[in-house]
Automatic annotation (TrEMBL):
This is MFS transporter. PANTHER family: CYANATE TRANSPORT PROTEIN CYNX, PTHR23523. The chain crosses the membrane at residues 52-71, 83-101, 107-129, 141-162, 168-189, 219-240, 252-275, 287-305, 311-331, 343-362, 374-393. It holds the Pfam family MFS_1. It comes from the Bacteria. It comes from Brevundimonas guildfordensis. SUPFAM superfamilies: MFS general substrate transporter. Keywords: Membrane, Transmembrane, Transmembrane helix.
Amino acid sequence: MDQSNVSTPSRGAGLLLIAAIFALALNLRPAMAAVGPLLDLIEAATGMDSTTASLLTTLPVAMIGVGALSIRPLRRRLGERMGILLGAVLIGLACLARWPISSTGGLILSAVVVGIGVALIQALAPVVIKRAFPTRFGTVMGVYTTGIMGGAAVAAATAAGFAEAFGWAVALALWSIPALVAAVVWIIASRNPVAEETNRLAVVEGTDPEVPFWKQPRAWALVPILGLGTSAYTLVLAWLPPYYVDMGQARATAGFLLSGMTGAEVLAGVLVSLFIARFPDRRGPMLLAVALALIGLAGLVLTPVSLAVPVMLLLGLGIGAVFPLTLILAMDQIDDPVRSGDLLAFVQGGGYIIASLSPLAAGLLRDRLSDLSQAWMLMGLGLLVMAAITLTFRPGGAKLR
């Protein structure tokens, strides 16, 4: 796409667009984050075992991956503005359905629909960000990822209290309200021309890349980086509260620990947004983030209760920085907003399918061993692999086409 014809929004319109993106981001994780602190209640009410219950996280994450892989034809048909709106509406309706339809089948179906909605937003929002804020892309991406972590933190902190006051099904359904509010805010903010590809015909008839991403090894290398980094996030999101409940901690305490960890993730996202422009070589910040996450995972195995607070802090800072850094690293590889969005969809497609396996594997381990320590150790090995692959992305190297 010729970026010379793309103008940045005015200050007021830009702030409104950032606010809408932040509001949308807040809704990308609560449908999953609120499940963990209530998992024992859900299992007791529905008769799910741990493997089946893991599908409430595994399926949305898998659908994010599948949806990302098919986002290009969807964008051609819907455009970014309508695609993001549809995603927010799907999240809202899926959450709302968890109140009247709280059976195993209903919860699993809602998890699939949530995943589709999240996939639409996650694949399209970065394209809008890069087009609207080309000189502040890293900063606005940091705001976006901070919103994602912030929504998870609030959901984890409030789940137990809402469940005690209204029941677990209503506690899950309440997250329909901010999702539908975000849809309204997006309708208003996305009237700005930069929220939509102005030359839709060029996208439809467009210029397919000479070399598809699946033929480029550098694109494939990004897949496990995002996949393994996100695996750590989804694993902790799904199984950290049950891990502490299994050790005799109160449900509310387990939820607050997850909330504290995601609060540290929010802090990490803010730090990334503030300082990432100073690090054109993304490898240094990434390796530091991985090191913090590894120390946190070790703490979960060795001192999960006695040092719970510092463990949550280190784990949150590490995982919270890994997530935006992987997205920024992927978007660094191509300058054109639409083409870089296609790359991110390809990377997220494979990456989220990989990430969906970690909650499922942990559920299987819990059913068979009644312990999640092995899951934390396996995740540590995965992060080491991710760090090794990241080292190959030297700044100034050949970019993708």
